[in-house]
């Protein structure tokens, strides 16, 4: 049985998972631990817009850990845009990432903002769902 970080986070909450997996019982002596990452919100709804209207929404990326991390950002699907593809966050730092949406045609649009942190043993991936609708008045 496998569990995703997102599924565990939904079931137990970010703070509980961080506390649980950062306890000494889960740490391997001499091994680096994965850096925690918090993203707010985990879903962005741009609402119903008129064609050609541009809207921007912020996603806050926070590093509550004790070390510096590098986060790679990538968009998938829909006419969504970001201005940056890599964040470097010091311990305790946070940064706002503006996600923009502009569509000329009527319809429903969905996409994802993927945030990836490469760890020593594996890569952590967090996903922010993006949704918007365009309708002619």
SSE topology sketch:
Layout: H1 5-12, H2 14-21, E1 38-40, E2 43-49, E3 54-62, E4 69-76, E5 80-81, E6 86-89, E7 94-102, E8 107-118, E9 123-134
Parallel strand pairs: 2-9
Antiparallel strand pairs: 1-3, 3-7, 4-6, 4-8, 5-7, 8-9
Helix pairs in contact: 1-2
Task: Supply the key terms.
137 residues; elongated; mainly beta; 9 strands; 4-stranded antiparallel β-sheet; 2 helices
Q: What does this entry look like structurally?
A:
- There is one protein chain.
- The protein is mainly beta.
- The protein is built from 2 helices and 9 strands.
- The protein has a 5-stranded mixed β-sheet with strand order 2-9-8-4-6, with no helix packed on it. A 4-stranded antiparallel β-sheet has the order 1-3-7-5, with no helix packed on it.
- Helix 1 packs across helix 2.
- The termini are far apart.
Reading side by side through the largest sheet, how are the strands ordered?
2-9-8-4-6
- Taking the alpha carbons of the first and last residues, their distance comes to 49 Å
Low-pLDDT parts are 15-33
Number of strands: 9
Q: How does the helix and strand content classify structurally?
A: mainly beta
Helix and strand element order: HHEEEEEEEEE
Strand content: over 45%
Fraction in helix: 10-25%
Q: Biggest sheet, in brief?
A: 5 strands, mixed
Shape field: elongated
Annotation field: number of helices = 2
Average pLDDT taken over every residue: 82
- What is the C-alpha radius of gyration, as a whole number of Å? 17 Å
């Amino acid at each position: 049985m496998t569990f995703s970080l997102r599924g565990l986070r939904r079931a137990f909450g970010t703070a509980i998972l961080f506390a649980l997996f950062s306890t000494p019982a889960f740490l391997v002596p001499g091994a680096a631990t994965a850096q925690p990452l918090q993203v707010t919100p985990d879903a962005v709804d741009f609402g119903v817009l008129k064609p050609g209207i541009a809207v921007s929404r912020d996603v806050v990326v926070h590093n509550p850990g004790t070390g510096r991390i590098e986060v790679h950002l990538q968009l998938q699907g829909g006419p969504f845009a970001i201005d940056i593809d890599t964040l470097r966050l010091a311990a305790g730092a946070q940064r706002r990432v503006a996600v923009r949406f502009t569509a000329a045609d009527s319809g429903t649009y969905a996409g994802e903002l993927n945030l990836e942190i490469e760890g020593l043993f594996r890569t952590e991936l967090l996903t922010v769902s993006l949704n918007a609708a365009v309708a002619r008045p």
